[in-house]
Write a structure and sequence with these properties.
- α4 runs antiparallel to α5, α8 packs across α12 and α12 packs across α13.
- The strands form 4 sheets. A 3-stranded antiparallel sheet has the order 1-2-3, with no helix packed on it. It has a 3-stranded mixed sheet with strand order 7-9-8. Strands 4-5 form a two-stranded antiparallel sheet.
- The protein is flat and about 80 Å long.
- The chain contains 14 helices and 10 strands.
- The relative contact order is 0.09.
- The protein is mainly alpha-helical.
Length: 440
């Protein structure tokens, strides 16, 4: 009689099986089962399920990806399908504008228009990456949504080029190319940031590759449906615009639901402000899910305490903090001596009691920056009391420093990753001052 000695589970197929002892020290494997019911490997439905999972989902799913992976990918699939179908409508408009079906059109004219259009997009791509590159890391959810709204706007412009005067065709196609270039930069970079969030087993390449496979499959399905869509709308401008409006609404709604499904477990400016403001006011640590529920995706300006009376600037120059005060050298000495055991210095900027500045030492790490943000939130809380100016800064530091170790421990237990931050930082770092012995 066989005796079970172990039970194991296949993380990909979800099949479970027992390892049994059959005598003489030998073991054998029982047939797999699911949910207490034995299943055969040879069934067609089971084989298809296993194949689809292995082709389109990362190896080891769901254990090797973030918990929000499936919810995001489902809505991302819907938006990709709408985008593909909408793109086919604009492709038809572009081809018509270039002279397809027009006996008077020449290949040279079409080629020149194509070159000018592509050059416009390339220049826009370089300029946008220069101006907004770092913001894409800090707010991938917002920029992911912005990218898809720009994509719909580009489709609208290209569709309009078909009904506008031929003299406007080149200008409209160049504008559409510029918008598509912005979509390429913002969409690609935010996709990389979200992939980094989703990959939980050092498997970014696998997650990215499977995402590309999913997108390719959706595009194939979209092209198949697109054949019927293009034939259905025909040459009717009214049908084309109705189809565009329906697909655009579906595209934007699916995108919004997709980014809302993402629960980031690293701090950016907004999440850190929400977390620490709530902490100093209630002494309660929020989980990533709770912060995600409070997070604003539309209309976020990108700075901590955006709606508060006290603003915060990180990694400013010491001169920015002390300039305008009566005794600048004395102010610098006060900061250096008070913060001798910290890797940052925080005070009100100049004589402005509405803006806090943080000067970071060269040795400051993510936890030190988080402590500075918590300190700023505590100053804002103290600002509602009778304390003002430097007195509120000192009192807030005492409160934060007293329970900082416990705060870090509770944050990790709540699910936050503290080894990486996406916050807006200035360019200055303090290497040393004449009033302390701290050097890098």
């Amino acid at each position: 009689q066989s005796e079970p000695v172990a039970c194991e589970c296949n993380v990909t197929t979800k099949a479970r099986r027992r390892v049994t002892l059959v005598g003489g020290g030998h073991t054998a494997l029982e047939q797999p089962w699911r949910g207490g019911r034995r299943t055969g490997r040879g069934t067609c439905a089971w084989a298809v399920t296993v194949l689809v999972r292995s082709v389109f989902l990362p190896e080891g799913w769901p254990h090797t990806v973030s918990p929000d992976y499936l919810a995001y990918q489902q809505w991302d699939t819907v938006q990709a399908l709408c985008s593909t179908l909408s793109g086919l409508l604009s492709t038809r408009a572009i081809l018509a504008g270039y002279g397809v079906g027009n006996a008077e059109a020449t290949a040279i004219a079409a080629t020149m228009n194509w070159i000018i259009r592509d050059m416009s997009g390339m220049m826009a791509r370089i300029l946008f990456a220069w101006l907004q590159g770092s913001a894409l890391d800090r707010n991938p959810k917002t920029w992911r949504l912005v990218a898809d709204v720009l994509n719909d706007l580009a489709t609208f412009v290209l569709l309009a080029s078909e009904v506008c005067s031929p003299a406007c065709f080149l200008a409209l196609t160049c504008l559409g190319s510029v918008l598509r270039a912005l979509v390429g930069v913002a969409g690609g970079c935010t996709r990389a940031a979200l992939t980094m969030h989703q990959a939980r087993a050092d498997n970014m390449a696998d997650v990215s590759a499977k995402d590309a496979s999913q997108e390719t499959a959706v595009n194939l399905v979209g092209l198949a449906f697109g054949v019927f869509l293009v034939k259905s709308v025909g040459e009717s401008a009214a049908r084309t615009w109705v189809a565009f409006v329906v697909l655009t609404v579906g595209h934007i709604v699916a995108n919004y639901l997709a980014v809302c499904a993402v629960v980031m477990d690293t701090f950016n400016d907004q999440r850190a402000a929400i977390f620490f403001t709530h902490l100093v006011e209630t002494d309660k640590v929020l989980t990533p899910e709770e912060v995600a529920a409070r997070e604003s995706i539309i209309g976020y300006c990108g700075t901590p305490h955006a709606q508060a009376r006290i603003q915060l600037r990180l990694a400013v120059s010491l001169h920015d903090i002390t300039a305008g005060k009566s005794q600048e050298c004395a102010e610098l000495e006060k900061l250096s001596r008070y913060y001798k055991n910290e890797h940052y210095m925080l005070d009100f900027v100049g004589s402005n009691n509405g803006t806090l500045g943080v000067a970071l030492r060269s040795s400051a790490g993510p936890e030190d920056i988080l402590k500075a943000i918590a300190h700023a939130a505590a100053v804002h809380n103290c600002d509602g009391s009778r304390l003002r100016g430097w007195a509120s800064v000192v009192r807030a530091h005492e409160l934060v420093d007293e329970r900082w170790a416990a705060t870090l421990r509770q944050a990790r237990e709540a699910g936050w990753r503290l080894d990486r931050l996406q916050v807006a930082l200035g360019d200055w770092r303090v290497e040393s001052t004449k009033f302390d012995n701290h050097t890098e």
